[in-house]
Amino acid sequence: KPQHLALNPFGQIPVIQDGDFTLFESRAIAKYLAKKYMGQGTDLLGSTLTERALVEQWCEVEGQSFRGPAFSIIEQILLAPILGDSRDEEAVKISVEKVGKVLDVYEERLSKSKYLAGDFFSLADLQHLPYTHYLVNACGKGDLISSRKHVKEWWEDISSRPAWKKVAEKMKFK
Amino acid sequence: MAAVKLYGPLASTATSRALACLLEKQVEYQLIPVDLKKGEQKKPQFLAMQPFGQVPVLQDGALTLFESRAIVRYIAEKYAAQGTIGLLGKSLAERAVIEQWMEVESQTYNPPSSFLVFQLAFAPLWGIPQNQAEIVKNEKKFSKVLDVYEKRLSESKYLGGDEFSIADLSHLPNTEYIVKATGKSELITSRKYVNAWWEDISSRDSWKKIREMSKAGNKK
Fold first, then answer.
1. What family is reported (chain B) (predicted)?
2. B126 or A25: which leads in pLDDT
C-alpha cells in the first residue's frame, strides 16, 4: 500500500524510523544499530579492522549462501500451505542438501572458532538466528543443525542469548 | 609494502566488483587468475583459502578475506584516506543508506540480473540449454526492480546520495553484462535516470581500466 511503499519502495519489511531517518533492509538496519549504539550492550562488529572484515565476510556468507536455500525450505513448508499451494518436496530436498553443504563448511569453521567471525559473538552469528529458528522449530529440519557437533554447540549458544529468547518468544508462525 | 593479492578471473562479476574497489582506492594489487573451467576453485589449495570454492579471495598480509562485498567494504575502510574519498559516506546516516543500497544490490538486483546474464550471455557459449520461461519471469522481476531504481535516481544522483559510493560500485559488474552481452540493454537504456547513472558510473577511470583489461585478456 502507498503508505508503506513511501517507506520501502520495494514493498518489504522491516523498516525503521529513527527520528526523521528511514532505513530498510534488515542487515543494513542491524549494522546501523550496531554502529550507532556501539559502547552499550553487546559489541557486534569486532574491535579491529581485521575483525570487522571477518564479520562482514560471514554476514555476506549468510546473505549469499545460507539465506537462499534456508528460505526455500521455509517457503515450501510454512508459506505454501498458507497460500494454498502444495509443498514441492523436490525443492525442499534440493534446498536441504544445499543448506547441508553450507553447514558442512560452518562445521569446519566452528571447530576452529567459537563464533563465525572469531571468538566473539557478532552480527554474523546474529543474522543466522531467524531462519535457523524456523528451520529447527517450525520446519522439522533440526537435524541439519543437531547432526553437526560444532554447529549444534554454536546454535545452542547463540539461540539461548537473552536478547534472542525475547524475540523468539514472539515468533509464532501460524 | 607488499601488494594485495586478488585471486579470481576478471570475467567473474564478483572478482571485478572487488577489483573496481582496489582501483578506486589506488591500492597496489596483483590479480591472480583462477581457471574456473579447470575447476581450480574446487582444488584443495584454493579451498584452503575459500572453503566454499568461490572467487574472489583477497590476501592482505596475514588476512585472507572472501565475499566480494566484504572485500569492497574492507578496502574502502582500510584505504579510506587515499584514492576516491567518501565511498563509505561522511556520517553514520550516510553510511547506513549506502549499506541499505548495498543490501538491495545483493538481495534484489543481483539475483534476477545474474540469472539473465547467465542464461543470455553464458549458457549459449557453454552449450547449456536456456530456460525461456524463467528468462521471461526474471526479466519481469528485474524490470520492476529497475522501476524502483528509476524513481530513486530521479531524486538522488547516486544510490547513497550525492556522491559515488560502494553502493553504486557494487552494481557495475552485473550491469555491464546486462548492457553489453544479453541483448537486453534497453532494460537500462530505456530508463532516463538509470541510464544517466549507468553512463556516469561506467565511465569512471576504474571501470574504464577494467574494460581495457578485459579486452586485452580476450585477445589472448
1. Belongs to the GST superfamily. Phi family.
2. A25
Chosen for mutation from A50, A66, A116, A150 (greatest number of chain B CBs closer than 10 Å) is A50
Domain stop point among B35, B69, B85 = B85
Residue B57 bridge partners (DSSP): B7, B66
Looking at the fold, whether B111 and B197 belong to one and the same domain comes out as yes
Q: For residue A35, give Cα distances in angstroms to A164, B29, B37, B173, B193.
A: 19, 30, 41, 29, 32
pTM: 0.97
Mean pLDDT on B68-94: 97
Q: Is residue B81 located within the same domain as residue B155?
A: no
- Domain assignment present for residue B61? The answer is yes
Q: Do A10 and B145 touch (CB under 8 A)?
A: yes
Domain count, chain B: 2
Measured between alpha carbons, how far is B165 from B105 in angstroms, rounded to an integer? 13
Q: Which domains does chain A have, with CATH numbers?
A: 1-37 (3.40.30.10), 49-169 (1.20.1050.10)
Query: What Rg value do the Cα atoms of chain A yield, rounded?
Result: 17
pLDDT for position B196: 98
Q: Which of residues 97-116 of A touch B (CB under 8 A)?
A: 102, 105, 108-109
Q: Among residues B51, B85, B119, which one ends one of the domains?
A: B85
A122 close to A55: Cβ distance less than 8 angstroms = yes
- The per-residue pLDDT for range B131-183, each reduced to its tens digit, is 999 999 999 999 999 999 999 999 999 999 999 999 999 999 999 999 999 99
Rounded Cα distance between A100 and A102, Å, is: 5
Domain enclosing residue B110, as ranges: 92-205
Q: What residues contact A3, with CB distance under 8 A and at least 6 apart?
A: none
Distance between CA atoms of B45 and B189, rounded to whole angstroms? 43
CA B78 vs CA A136, B27, B60, B92: distances in Å: 39, 10, 11, 17
**Locate cell 560444532: which residue?**
A150
Assess contact for A168 and A133: CB atoms under 8 A: yes
Q: How many CB atoms lie within 10 A of CB A92?
A: 20
